[in-house]
């Protein structure tokens, strides 16, 4: 099957072409092509070191690829070369927002301040408006009681939900999740996945790097399997995760589903 | 040995007054300006531009590698040779500010480096520029880390201002010297001056503790 078979209906929201990235001698990404349609959920899976997190970081301009391009439907689009600067890449952040594995909440700010920081400082929105929206978003993820707490007073699951709300508050077109549950205690994973699932059902466009294959199967419209900096296989989750065609995908999925 | 308690009590107010009108304002002004210099030097030192980083390194090296008293004398007694004549107060403030700038720069640099890289990335990813991230996220967190070492710098500075007496600034120690000039009670008056410095520093230490507690709000215990 061709790579675009399951790339969602309608025009692509984001197209990444020929992304390449090396750290020193190590080529982490070797010509990655990705497309994601509006409202689509794409799960990136693969062994650690396969480059999936780097892909996500390139899409947000946190990592500058050595070559390739990232284009949003109505802009911005960035052609990367060896001379591309952080400044040129940062326009990508006007359309996408990132949720980190380690939350990276601002420890010196309360939950509410964490959420309104972007809207007020960056998007120059009115404080009252930003607070009202943040309040509604926090209530949606079950954190209405936590406004005035500091991050260290929350559980990991609660912190990650704040991380998600902080991203949502920016009203991005695309949400990027970098292993959002990998740092969580097992019993807290469910709360966070539930929130992500709800966002998917609401039609948010999302790309997530994850090791939760069962979850990927449930929420993703497309699964992309990467290994050693290349896309090995992509397609509908039922195919890639249940009945993979490629030998490496088979091994990886088998190992994750049968760890012992 | 008889202690001249009358002289002791008569001298207390002039000495304390010298502290309040000389030592404290001199220390506060120099520390404020010094911190601004230190912040600039710390950022220059962290710059990816090698030349900029080198300039900061050279500055810090000169300041830390030469005695404060010598720096003070170069500015007050030396610069007039070049046609730059400064009165005692400006000379003292310039010398102490430059000195604090050199020492505090390393403290601030270390504090900035102690903030996890993820905080920079989180700032960038919500759309902040480097400068906004620094101002809103990194420096507030670095401030918490740097309060204890900067308090040390400040307390040292308060004591070092006694050197300004040698370039004729009327501060605490200058007052004490003036009293000994007519009373010849060197031990009594200098011990008294030492006690007043000590009380000042006790108050400052208490202030440091309170500031740390206030900044501790968001730190897990």
Automatic annotation (TrEMBL), chain A:
Localization annotation: Cell membrane
SUPFAM superfamilies the UniProt entry points to: P-loop containing nucleoside triphosphate hydrolases (SSF52540)
Annotated protein name in UniProt: ABC-type polar-amino-acid transporter
Catalytic activity as recorded in UniProt: a polar amino acid(out) + ATP + H2O = a polar amino acid(in) + ADP + phosphate + H(+)
Membrane topology: Peripheral membrane protein
GO MF terms, alphabetically ordered: ATP binding; ATP hydrolysis activity; ATPase-coupled polar amino acid-transporter activity
Residues covered by the ABC transporter domain: 14-253
Family matches, as Gene3D superfamilies: P-loop containing nucleotide triphosphate hydrolases
Keywords noted in UniProt: ATP-binding, Cell membrane, Membrane, Nucleotide-binding, Transport
Any one cellular-component term (Gene Ontology): plasma membrane
Enzyme class: translocase
Transmembrane regions: none
Pfam families: ABC_tran (PF00005)
Automatic annotation (TrEMBL), chain B:
Name used for this protein in its record: Amino acid ABC transporter permease
The species this protein was found in: Paeniglutamicibacter gangotriensis Lz1y
Entry membrane topology: Multi-pass membrane protein
Residue intervals of the ABC transmembrane type-1 domain: 20-208
A GO CC annotation given for this chain: ATP-binding cassette (ABC) transporter complex
Keyword Manganese: no
Keywords, ordered alphabetically: Amino-acid transport, Cell membrane, Membrane, Transmembrane, Transmembrane helix, Transport
Keyword match Transmembrane helix: yes
First-listed, main subcellular location of the protein, grouped into a coarse class: membrane
CDD domains: TM_PBP2
